[in-house]
Predict the structure.
Amino acid sequence: MDKIVTKALSLFYGEKRILKEIDLKIPQNNITAIIGPSGCGKSSLLRCMNRLNDLIPESRIEGQILFDGKDLYAENTDVVEIRRRIGMVFQRPNPFPKSVYDNIAYGLRINGIKNKKKLSEIVEKSLKDSGLWEEVKHQLNTSAMELSGGQQQRLCIARALAIEPEVILMDEPCSALDPAGTFKIEELMIKLKQQYTIIIVTHNMQQAARVSDFTGFLYLGQLIEFGHTNQIFTIPEHKLTENYITGRFG
Amino acid sequence: MKLKRFEEAVGFGILGLSAITVLLILCIIVFDITKKGAGAISWQFLVDFPREGMTQGGIFPAIIGTIFVTFITALFSIPLGVSAAIYLSEYAKEGRFTRFIRVSIRNLAGVPSIVYGLFGVALFVEGLRFGTSVLSSGLTLGLLTLPWIIATSEEAFKTVPQSYREGALALGATKWQSIRSNVLPSAFPGILTGGILGLSRAAGETAPILFTGVAFYLPRLPDSVFDQFMALPYHLYILSTQHHAIEQVRPLAYGTALVLIALVFMVNLTAIILRYRYRKKFSM
Amino acid sequence: MNLVRIKEKAIHFFFFTTGISAVIILLGIFLMLLIRGVQTFKDVPFFDFLLGIAWNPSAYGEPSYGILSMVVSTVMVTLGAIIIAVPLGIGTAGYIAEIASPKKRETLKPVIEILAGIPSVVMGFIGIVLVGPVIAKIFGLTSGLNALNGSILLAVMSLPTIISVSEDAIRAVPKDYNEASYALGASRWTTLIRVTLPACLSGIVASVMLGIGRAIGETMTVLMVTGNTPAMPHSFFDSVKTMTATIAIELGEVPYGTTHYYALFAVGAILFLTSFGVNLVAELVTVKHRRGRA
C-alpha cells in the first residue's frame, strides 16, 4: 500500500525550478531512501511532504502530493494536522533549549495533553523507543543542549515519536554524527519501520544500501530511477544512476 | 618607500588620535561631574524633598517621578514594540508594504524629541484630555522609544535559529505556538537588553515631558497617573538655568547630574553584561 | 479545528495592527503638525513666516512671526557641529574598524554607547559649567553661551551615530578588495584611503546625514548653552535661539489657540519635514549603496 504518492510534482522558488515532474510512490511501513548529489533537490522534496516549504517566500508547487489518497496541497488541508501526522527529523539535531523532558513533552502539550501522569508515560515510552532512555533517565530535567550530538538526534527522533505520527521524514539525520551515533540511528530506523513509514534523504550511499527497502535517485531536480534498493544498487537501469552509485561523480 | 611608510604612520596616528579624543571627551565629562557631584551626594540627598526654595534638601521626588514615568513608558512601548517586531520578523512577507513600514520606523526614530513633545500635547494632553500628567508624559516618551524597541527586538528575533521554528512546526505546532514557546523565550535576553537601553534613554529625555506633565516643583509625590510629577533631567535643567540663585545651587545641580550619569552607567553596564552572557550562551 | 485556524488568523491580525502602528504614528504626527501649523497662515502670510527676520510674537499691537533668524541659527549650530564631528567621527570609525586590536575595540564600543546614552540635559549642563567658561576665557568674551558652545556639544552628541554607522560601513567592505590592493603592493594606509573609503563612501554619507538629523533636532542642549537671543546671528560668538529652543521656551507660556501657539506647531512641522528629508536621503544613499554591491 502506498502511503504518499507524488504526481508530476514540480517545485519552484520564485522563477527557479527546483523539482521537475516527480512521480513517486512511498510504500507504507518501509524505509524509502532518496539519494543524489548535493543540490539535487532531495531535501526540498522531503520538505514538500510536510509543507515546510511554505515557510520559504515565493515557493510554489505544481502537480500533486497524495497522503493516504488525499491532496496535501488542497485548499482545505489543515497544515498543522498534516505536520502532526508526518513527523520530521532534521539534518542537524535541533533540540529546543529546554530540558530533555520538556523537549519530548512539547508536541504533546501543544496538542492539549496536560495530564502529568500521561505526559510522563509517553515521554518514557518515546525515549525507550528511541533507545535513549537508559542514557538519560536520570537527567530528564537537564538541558537537552548538554547531550552529545548523537543523543540530541535520538532525542529529536523521540520528540517526533511522542506524537505518534504515521510517517517520519528524515533529512540526512546522521550527517552531523560520528560512526557510533550513526550506527545507533540506523538500528533504530530498522526497528521503527514496523510501525512507521520512513523516508530518509541521504548523500551516503552505503547508508541507503544498509537501511532502505526502496531507493530513489534524484539528479538536478529529476527522479532518474526508483525501485527496490538491491535492484538500484546492483543492476541500475540508467547510466546516470550507475555512475553515481559507483562513485564516478557526486 | 620611506615616504610611504611615514605617510602611513602619520595617517594611522591621526586616526588613533581621533579615537583618543573621543575617549577623552567621555572621561572629562564623567570626571568633572563625579568630582564636583560626589560632595553633594548623601543618603539624605537621595531621600529628601527639596527645601528652602530648592536651595537645600534632596531630589527624592525627582527620582520617584522619573521611575514612575519610565514605568508608564515601559508599559506602553514594550508590549507594542515587541508585538510590532514579532509582526515584522515572523509574519510579514518581504515586499513593498513591509519596506514601507520599515522606512516609517527609521524615520520615526529620527523625529526630533521636541516634535514628540508637540504631538504629546496635541494628542494626550488636549486630544484625549489626560492633562499635563504622568500618563501624558509616559505615553509621549513611549512613542519616542517605540522605534528603538521595535528595532532592537527585531534584531533579537533574527538571532533565534530557524531550526527552533521549523522543529516546532514539524511537530504540528501552529505558528503562534512556535513563536510563544520557542521564539520568544530565546529572543527574550536580547529584547530585555534593548528594552533596558531604550528606557534609560527615555528616562533621560526632557523635551518630550516639558509640556506634557513635568512640574517645576511639587511638595508631594504624584498620587495617580493623572498627577503632575518632578523628573531628574528636568530638575537638572531647572537648577542649572532657571533657578533664582544659580550659583548657590550649583552643588545640587552637580549632584543631580551625577545621579543621572550614574543611572545611565549602571543601566548600560547591566545591558552590556546581559548581552555578553547571552552571546556566550548562544555560541555554545 | 476551525477554531484553531480562526484563532491563528486573529493573532496574525493583531500583530499586523501593531506592526503598522509606526506608520500610523508617523502619519499622525505629520497630520497633527500640518493641521495645527496651517492655522498660522490665517493671520501670517506664508512668505512673511518663512522669510521674515523678526520673531516677536508677543510684541504689543504688531507681532511678527518670521522664522528666518531661527532657521539660520539652527543651520549654523548644526553646520559647526558637523565640521567638528565628521573628521573626528570618521577618524575614530576608521581606527576601530581597521587598526584597533579586538581588545581595544571591545573597550571603545561601550565607551561610544555610554556617550550616546548621556542625557541631553547633562550635556547642556557640561556646556554651562565647562565648555562655556573655557570659550569665554580663550576668546575674551563675557559669556561663553553662544553658537560655538552649541556646536561643540552637538558635535559630541552626534559622534556616536557617526562613529557606529561609519564603522559598520567600513567593515562591510569585502576583505578581498583590501587583499587585492595589498597584492598590488599598496600599504594599509593607501588601501584604506584609496580603496576602502571610496567603497563605503555612501555608508559614510549616510552616517553624516543621520548625525545632522540628530543635531538639528536636539533641544535641551542647545536651549541651555546657546544663550537664546532671538536675532539674526553674525558669527559663532553670537548668542542664538534655534528652532527647537524656541518651541521649548515658548510653548509653555502661550495660550491655547492663539496665532503664536499655532506658529510653534508650524515651526515643529518644518523641523519634522527637515528631519524626514535628512533621514530619507540617508535611506536612499544606503539603498543605492546596497544595490551597487549586489
In short: The mean pLDDT of chain A is 90. Chain A has ten helices and ten strands. Chain A touches chain B through 26 residues (CB under 8 Å).
